[in-house]
Design a protein that fits this description.
single chain; 195 residues; alpha+beta; Aminopeptidase; seven-stranded mixed beta sheet; globular
Length: 195
């Protein structure tokens, strides 16, 4: 994920969460009302998730993930994954087009059993700056409202995503994993607790 809000101001409660930032009223007016955030319900929406997944990785992870790995990614493979794991998927739609998605779930990490996880959040680059990622994150956290602790895993070199999560109040907790995506890459966990 690589979009984060600009025009930041002071703290405010949003959906019961005390975020470390807020978008001021002028900035909120910039949100395109034609973009709808909703649960993925149709095969077309899951296909849209697959397209966004593949495209966003290829756009955002150049220089972070091995080019050879990114070049072999296909929309067919990411769509198959979306169809295999359709639960807890939110899509951002501009008309009929899926332009972003988020996946959320109860924790899969044994050392954080009573937490909610935002597994993925991606937005097409042409929608950066339109607060699509902000709206997806807010909705995912709202759907995880039974939890007091939330976390994300992020590529260690994905500075834009890390900045986005920091602005929400997520902080590194010291957990790190190694993945192989053509070449080894590190992912780090960021955690936020409800105020």
């Amino acid at each position: 994920y690589s979009e984060f809000p600009s025009n930041l101001c002071s703290k405010r409660m949003i959906n019961g969460f005390d975020f470390s930032f807020n978008i001021n009223e002028d900035c909120m007016e910039e949100i395109n009302d034609s973009i709808v955030i909703k649960s993925a319900e149709t095969d077309e929406e899951l296909c849209g998730r697959g397209y966004v997944h593949c495209t966003a990785w290829q756009e955002s992870y150049r220089g972070i993930v091995c080019d050879r790995y990114l070049d072999t990614m296909t929309v067919e493979a990411t769509t198959a994954r979306a169809r295999k794991f359709p639960d807890n998927t939110l899509v951002a739609k501009d008309g009929d087009q899926v332009v972003g998605f988020a996946v959320y779930s109860p924790s899969r990490d044994e050392d954080l059993p009573d937490a909610g996880e935002v597994d993925a959040i991606y937005v097409l680059s042409e929608y950066y700056g339109r607060k699509v990622g902000y709206r997806l994150m807010n909705e995912a956290l709202s759907r995880l409202s039974e939890y007091n602790t939330f976390f994300v895993w992020v590529l260690e070199k994905n500075e834009r995503a890390i900045e986005f999560y920091h602005k929400y109040g997520f902080e590194f907790d010291g957990c790190k994993k190694e993945w192989t995506l053509g070449t080894p890459v590190s992912i780090v966990r960021m955690v936020m607790k409800r105020a």
